[in-house]
Specification:
Layout (H helix, E strand, L loop, with lengths): L2 H14 L21 H6 L5 H13 L1 H9 L4 E3 L3 E6 L2 E6 L2 E2 L1 H5 L12 E6 L5 E5 H17 L7 E5 L4 H13 L2 E4 L6 H11 L3 E5 L2 E3 L2 E3 L1 H8 L9 E5 L13 E3 H4 L12 E2 L3 E6 L9 E5 L1 H13 L8 E4 L6 H13 L3 E5 L10 H9 L3 E4 L1 H10 L2 H4 L8 E4 L6 H11 L6 E3 L34 E4 L12 E5 L9 E2 L3 H8 L7 E9 L5 E6 L4 E3 L2 E3 L1 H9 L4 E11 L3 E10 L7 H14 L8 E4 L13 H8 L15 H8 L5
Parallel strand pairs: 5-18, 7-8, 7-9, 9-12, 12-13, 17-18, 17-19, 19-20, 20-21, 30-31
Antiparallel strand pairs: 1-4, 2-3, 4-14, 5-6, 10-11, 15-16, 16-24, 22-23, 23-25, 25-26, 27-28, 29-30
Helix pairs in contact: 3-4, 6-7, 8-9, 11-12, 14-16
């Protein structure tokens, strides 16, 4: 179908469909409840729901008192005068105070036993291993801070970081914070065009990169991508610093490009951290997947750091003897908050792995957990579903008894994947913290507290401290139990974004215009009879089927609850009678035969689990779903395929471009 024909079909469908109500009752009910183990609760910082409720109520009723007490755990150069100055949509936290993020993550740990403790444990994809202590990391950061100063980087200057998953990426971030520069990390899977967009928007004068990085045995040409981004000389970049990682030959432009290791020869390790205002810009992180001008989310210093530290303390319950592993790439906000800043502020040991979970074999993650005796493991639902697809035998080869807590991040986790994670990875003993948050929020917003919250498979449960979450209809009225609505946050919180870089109007229009005075997350949700919040996906992904609102996440959960299904993605396509039809892309488990018989069985299964309105119009079997290297399913592309449209938009972040070609050629249920 041509793009014009598809547009005409969509317009015709819109005329025929009844308007959807502002909220729709969810037909999915989860009755399985898992209480925290008594042994875990006994040692946890928050050990009961009564304690959680008391602290949460205080954080909403008396935020000044609550957060002033929590902020005392940070190392301040100058005490703050006021906890919060709020004039919607602009928040200022801990005004009058001064501190430094690098100092809080490094220097304050050097006076005690943490000095010689592992700050970062790193494993490269080919197998290299490094352990970097807090003392060593401090020295590395100070030296690279001096390299940046040598190249005239000053407080407030922007620095783009485009690197593989190596410790030097964290060093570069911390070096920027040490001297007050604003970093913008660009995910290593992004294209030259994406780099250029971010350089131009941020006004960066320096790019830090590497000759290359490893991914599934191949070399990612990072330096070449930077060269392509800077062609023509129409960017503000004056300096490119290049880490030697793969040893491949790369172009070095005289007067612009400098080798990391050679620059270190000109500096020493003496670089005092500068005192920065609590609201000083810390980093810009551009949200991915959008079209048009990139959206630079701006985070500031004190509030962001406090929230990252608090969530590591209360949600991960991090301890000095933990080996903590967040599998996210450093180019995403999860890598910022929960690989670098949060764990290091806590004085924890953070594990970093460069490569893919199935290289060279499907058990690479389990090998790493066993080898390093990982205790806290934080990964994405897409990774968990991939593990399920590959089969249990890979996991059963390894001793995972060191694990004491599991976490998920990135998107809602379907109940069956949650149960598999709980039983097979956690051995039935580890609490699971299913965390909902965004690049914009800076840290966890809705999450279980592992020693207190009874959990249910598939729900992020309850708001974190300081988070006043509500689910409302289009008029801003709270919806009833199990009714779907829009998720809003009604009060400011410390790690909230401070704006969109260089675009105040876009900040106002994007996040604060839907409901006056409230932050609209863009996600749909429902609240069950126990008050637990269930994320049902982006509002844009909610289908309008014959006048009914249908959350794609619920249909996906129903599909994955079938024993034959490993993973699914559900999108809508134009339908002349119903407005939108339900198209399901399904990946089956190893050894399962896909075909019309299974497709019919899956349609019946969804009808039984949710109801007739959710019955799929089409099941398309796929060997794999289109994902970015971070594991996000690119539903935008699936929508275009389902509608028979010509594919458009950036596909450079895809893990495997061949997946799209195979899906487009597939004939549906045969």
């Amino acid at each position: 179908m041509s793009q014009k024909a598809a547009s005409q079909k969509t317009a015709k469908a819109a005329k025929n469909v009844k308007p959807a109500t502002t909220s729709t009752k969810s037909l999915l009910v989860e009755n399985r409840v898992f209480k925290p183990a008594a042994e875990f609760s006994k040692k946890a910082r928050i050990s009961s729901m009564a304690q959680y409720r008391k602290m949460h109520e205080e954080s909403l009723r008396h935020p000044e008192k609550f957060f002033a007490r929590e902020a005392k755990e940070l190392a301040w150069r100058k005490p703050f005068k006021k906890v919060l100055d709020w004039k919607c949509p602009n928040a200022k936290w801990f005004t009058g105070g001064q501190l430094n993020v690098s100092e809080n993550c490094l220097d304050r740990h050097l006076d005690g036993p943490r000095k010689t403790k592992a700050a970062i444990i790193w494993e490269g994809e080919p197998g290299e291993k490094r352990v970097i202590t807090y003392q060593q990391l401090h020295r590395d950061v100070c030296r690279f801070s001096n390299v940046l100063k040598r190249h005239k980087v000053r407080k407030g200057d922007r620095v783009v970081i485009y690197m593989p998953m190596v410790p030097e990426a964290a060093v570069a971030m911390l070096a920027c914070t040490r001297i007050g520069a604003v970093h913008s990390v660009v995910f290593g899977g992004f294209s030259a065009e994406s780099i250029k967009d971010r350089v131009l928007d941020s006004g960066a004068t320096v790019v830090i990169t590497a000759d290359g990085g490893y991914r599934r045995g191949a070399v990612v040409p990072l330096k070449k991508n930077v060269d392509d981004a800077l062609k023509g000389g129409d960017t503000p970049v004056k300096t490119v610093i290049v880490l030697r990682r793969t040893g491949q030959d790369v172009h070095i432009e005289e007067g612009r490009d400098y080798w990391w290791h050679r620059e270190l020869e000109y500096v020493d390790a003496n670089c005092p951290a500068v005192a920065l205002d609590s609201e000083a810009p810390l980093f810009i992180l551009y949200t991915s997947g959008s079209t048009g001008k990139p959206k630079g989310i701006l985070h500031s210093t004190a509030g962001y750091l406090l929230h990252a530290q608090m969530t590591c303390k209360y949600v991960f319950d991090l301890r000095d003897d933990d080996v903590y592993w967040c599998t996210a790439d450093i180019g995403w906000v999860t890598g910022h908050s929960y690989m670098v800043y949060g764990p290091l502020a806590m004085g924890a040991t953070s594990l970093m792995y460069e490569g893919a979970p199935n290289w060279p074999e499907n058990d690479r993650f389990w090998r790493i957990i066993e080898e390093y005796a990982v205790t806290v493991f934080y990964t994405a639902p897409t990774a968990i579903r991939a593990f399920m697809k590959w089969g249990d035998d890979w996991l059963k080869k390894h001793d995972l008894s060191s694990l004491r807590l599991l976490g998920t991040v990135g998107e809602p986790i379907n109940p069956e994947a949650w149960m598999w994670y709980h039983k097979l990875v956690g051995g039935g003993r580890c609490p699971i913290v299913d965390t909902w948050w965004q690049t914009e929020t800076g840290g966890h917003m809705i999450t279980p507290i592992p020693g207190a919250t009874p959990t249910k498979p598939g729900t992020a449960t309850l708001p974190f401290f300081g988070v006043d979450a509500a689910i409302v209809d289009d008029l801003g009225k709270e919806v009833g139990t199990n009714e779907q609505g829009k998720l809003v946050i009604r009060k400011p919180w410390p790690s909230m974004l401070r704006g969109i870089w260089g675009d105040k109007k876009r900040y106002q229009d994007t996040y604060w215009s839907e409901f006056k005075g409230w932050y609209f997350a863009g996600d749909g949700a429902r609240r069950d009879k126990d008050g637990y919040i269930w994320i049902i996906g982006r509002i844009d992904d909610v289908l309008n089927v014959a006048g009914h609102r249908l959350g794609t996440a619920e249909v996906e959960s129903a599909l994955v609850s079938h024993p034959a299904v490993a993973e699914s993605a559900v999108v809508g396509r134009p339908d002349e009678l119903k407005g939108q039809g339900v198209v399901c892309f399904v990946t089956v488990k190893e050894g399962v035969k896909a075909g019309r018989e299974l497709a019919d069985a899956l349609k019946s299964h969804v009808r039984k689990v949710i109801g007739p309105v959710a019955t799929p119009d089409e099941i398309r079997f796929a060997a794999a779903l289109p994902k970015t290297r971070s594991g996000k399913i690119m539903r935008r592309l699936l929508k275009q395929i389902a509608a028979g449209e010509t594919l458009k938009g950036d596909t450079t972040t895809l893990e495997d471009i061949n997946v799209i070609a195979a899906l487009a050629a597939a004939s549906g249920e045969d």
